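Task: fold both queries, return tokens.
Query 1:
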Amino acid sequence: MAKINVLSVCGSGTVTSSMLSAKIKEHLGKHGFNVNATEVNPGGIETALGSGSFDFIAYTCPIKDVYGVPIVSAMGFLTGFGEEEFIEEVLTILNSKG
């Protein structure tokens, strides 16, 4: 299984981002990825990026788009109305990494 690192961002950095991480792990696991997820709030993004390398950022609240890491809106994925689109976008990102 290919290992990937995901930064999961929600407004508080706890409940929603944990739910998002679990769902990402489940869905990407079906595609052969071993997902390591870190949950933060928007204020913790820069600290997390400074202490680790991430393949993409999944977010459910507004964030800046200046981190040098692909960002993907996960609100539709979390609610179930956009799961396929989210997974397709993430797989495109991961497959472009080589």
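Query 1 returned. Query 2:
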Amino acid sequence: MSEKDKMIEELKLIVKPYIQDEKGFEEMHEGTDFINDLKINSANLVDVILDIEDKYDIIFDNDSMDKMLNVKAALEIINQKVSEK
């Protein structure tokens, strides 16, 4: 399993409590949009971000939070923040 696949699996565990679309969740991939594909509402998206911060021991700035719309963006931001630690 590649590092990216591993991170997507970790991300799935984080978003699972907040999803409203099971089919979108089962097919979750880099292009999956949190709001449109998984039907995560904006309040729960904040919870997802907080859970990601806890898991990876990182802090998102407002700019990063605004970009956290899909799986690919989330992975890029997580990798960037982890590498800055």
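Both queries returned. Flag for query 2: Residues 3-84 form a domain with the Non-ribosomal Peptide Synthetase Peptidyl Carrier Protein; Chain A fold (CATH 1.10.1200.10).
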